[in-house]
Design goal:
The protein has helices at residues 9-12, 31-46, 66-69, 103-106, 141-148, 181-194, 213-218, 228-245, 268-282, 286-308, 353-356, and strands at 94-101, 204-210, 249-254, 318-323. It is α/β, with parallel strands linked by helices. It holds the Pfam family Lipase_GDSL.
């Protein structure tokens, strides 16, 4: 499967929470804490025989050498004139980057090899906003922009929760749902306005919003709360906040992952975690299973409809773009028909770097590929597509 990192460029070229007002009331129903309890209870039983390897024995499960396997050969591009229109941006024009979302944007467990150290957020590796090292060693959207503008601000570094100093403008919170997006949007605006290095009126900004997996996983327990209408309404509120407060901003909204397919990754450990954390979306049968699939597609379609409505096209310095590539991102399978577990953290749910960095592309046309082939895991070099 060509699990592609989403690049905004294609459109125009432990859960360590510090004491703070943000986030608030994220875990009133303890869904996320329940997930962590499951993982912690299973650690002694499964870590001895699953993913219990040294980094140098199996780097695919811990760290990939991106330098030689994913060469970035695109030439630098300077910004000759700062544009006044969001539709004329180049990577070199971007000065600020940020992100809203859940554990997938917080990079929960991304570089963990065992359940013991799973409960950690590797924000510096976050596919959309992580800024550890550089483009030659950690391939993220932020590092791609840093290649063109070394003065980029807002990217997250290292590990830590949403309130850690290194989180910067990565306000994603593990366990978050769509209902938390307005609060995250307000937090992002506050951080940008409070940063003396950011000129909110004149700096061009890129913000990525990616949410929905936890909503789908909870749908069975409260169909009204996690309905399509409520899901889209919360996203609308978050986008409205950014539209009102962030001039010169390009917002990416990703469609939800195909969460029901995660149930295909079936091992004794994975089944226990999946049933406890998201059995609602992964293990229903018959008509109920079909209903969850319909809901997944409804989340995607109605989110796209909101963005395509023209609501956010009222001025030339702001736009929102729906990115649909995850709609055709399917589970990776080995030649023997089993799911390729090397894409996943030890919890069988979150991703490791190879999953978010397979065959990245920079294209002025599209980044929407059907992602259904297993990668060569670095045994064959892939060229990056550079904008004309």
């Amino acid at each position: 499967m060509k699990f592609a990192v989403f690049l905004f460029l294609c459109s125009f070229v432990g859960l360590s929470l510090a004491e703070s007002d943000f986030p608030s009331n994220y875990h009133r129903q303890d869904e996320w804490l329940h997930f962590l309890d499951i993982v912690n209870s299973m650690t002694p039983k499964f870590d001895d025989d699953i993913h219990d390897v040294a980094e140098d024995e199996n780097p695919l499960l811990c760290r990939i050498n991106y330098v030689s396997e994913f060469p970035f050969t695109c030439p630098p591009m300077e910004s000759t004139e700062i544009p006044t229109s969001v539709h004329k941006l180049t990577p070199a024009d971007i000065s600020v980057i940020g992100a809203l979302g859940d554990s997938l944007t917080a990079a929960f467990g991304m570089e963990s090899c065992t359940l013991v150290n799973l409960v950690r957020e590797y924000r510096g590796l976050s596919w959309s906003v992580g800024g550890d090292e550089d483009i030659n060693t950690v391939l993220t959207v932020a590092n791609l922009i840093k290649f063109y503008n070394p003065d980029l601000k807002g990217y997250s570094r290292g590990t830590g929760g949403p309130n850690s100093p290194a989180a910067r403008f990565n306000v994603a919170v593990s366990g978050a749902r769509a209902e938390h997006m307005p609060e995250q949007a307000r937090e992002l605006v506050e951080r940008i306005l409070a940063d003396p290095e950011v000129d909110n009126e004149n700096d061009w900004k890129v913000v990525t919003l990616f949410i929905g997996g936890n909503d789908l996983c909870q749908y069975c327990f409260n169909e009204n709360k996690y309905s399509t209408e409520q899901y889209v309404e919360y996203i609308r509120q978050a986008l409205d906040i950014m539209h009102e407060n962030l001039p010169r901003t390009f917002v990416n909204v990703l469609g939800i992952l195909l969460i029901p397919e995660l149930g295909y990754y079936s091992t004794p450990k994975c089944d226990v975690i999946h049933i406890g954390a998201c059995g609602c979306a992964m293990f229903l049968q018959g008509d109920l299973n079909e209903h969850i699939w319909d809901l997944t597609r409804a989340y995607q379609r109605q989110t796209e409809a909101l963005i395509m409505s023209g609501r956010y096209d009222t001025r030339d310095d702001f736009t929102v773009v729906y990115q649909p590539f995850l709609e055709e991102t399917h589970m990776p399978f080995l030649d023997n028909g089993e799911v390729d577990g090397s894409y996943f953290a030890p919890d069988c749910f979150h991703l490791v770097p190879v999953a978010t960095l397979w065959e990245p592309k920079i294209s002025g046309i599209t980044c929407c590929n059907q992602l259904d082939k297993r990668p060569n895991h670095g045994t064959q070099k892939e060229a990056l597509i550079v904008p004309p």
